[in-house]
Amino acid sequence: MKSTRFSATEVRDSMDIQRSFKAKKPTLFLVATPIGNLSDISERAVETLQSVAAVFAEDTRVSGPLLSHFNVNTSLYSLHAHNESRKRSHVLNYLHNGEDIAYITDAGTPLLSDPGSSIVRAVIDAGYYVVAIPGANAAVTALTVSGLMPHPFMFYGFLPTKAGAREKTLHHLASLTCTLVFYETPNRMKTTLAHMYQIFGERDVSIAREITKQYETVYRFKLSEYNTLESMKGEAVLIVSGADEPPYDTEDALTHVTLLMEDGLSEKEAIKIAAKARNVPKNTIYMMVQNHKNMTKDSSEE
User: Fold this and answer.
1) Average pLDDT over residues 124-151
2) Of 112, 136, 160, at which residue does a domain stop?
């Protein structure tokens, strides 16, 4: 039987309660797939992929062999960043007809640095269900073996490719005290680490590559050692320790620097005095001032 379709306005204007397994509706299943070792797929994931009417995949050339390995003969369609908007109607047609479907990405948990978020929103707005089938995730797996504080952490994903945008983003992240988790490609790794060292200062770092595969490797080092890192292949998870909790009132330090500059001192001189008064390195106050300036600039541009 066809489910009742709700408009996006109706969903947004009232609380949307999804009782995933007590009040069955046509469902989009987000199925996590192995990030390397095929044995990491769950029995529930395989059963779901076998039972749905269709599987949408980020790259059918990658997912086809995976499904074949687990004897999944379900119809397979592509759904990636370049056709996501066009495939929305195709996805919804299955749900309108009362059928369940699944979405998988090349490896790991869907939507994390992968396409699919607009499809999920469209399915929810249409009044259908979205259910996750949990499984492998590179970011969390790498975090657990990093040796760094596992929580709180912030998953950022891939940094901007352009140097200016990347540095701007790192300035925003510099003052966060939580552990930072990124995805990065091997050809950009050392450049990213160099920018981090320039902006963050000394931090503890962990890089995990080829997770769950034969050549799984975990590097643990200081940011200042970035230039000694060996060349690597494949995407990697980059984890950086958070900023230390400032041993002083940051608002008071900013006010101190501002007042000194209003009295005619240069920014460099003001920072030096404010740092000495708080017995902290000059670079600590300098980074705080720069982050504040960047955030103020962004707010004014908005």
Assistant:
1) 95
2) 136
Mean pLDDT of the chain: 89
What does the pLDDT read at residue 23?
83
CA 68 to each of CA 49, 65, 74, 189, 245: distance values in angstroms, whole numbers, following the listed order: 11, 5, 10, 34, 51
Token couple for 214: 């034969």
Beta bridge partners, 220, equal 206
Per-position b or e across 221-249, b if 16+ CB within 10 A of its CB: eebeebeeeeebeebbbbbbbbbeeeebe
The dihedral through the CA atoms of 29, 155, 236, 59 has a sign that is: positive
Residues of the domain holding 217 = 139-240
Residues 28 and 41 in one domain: yes
H or E, element range at 300: helix 282-301
Least confident of 90-94, 244-248, 280-284: 244-248
What's the predicted TM-score (pTM) here?
A: 0.77
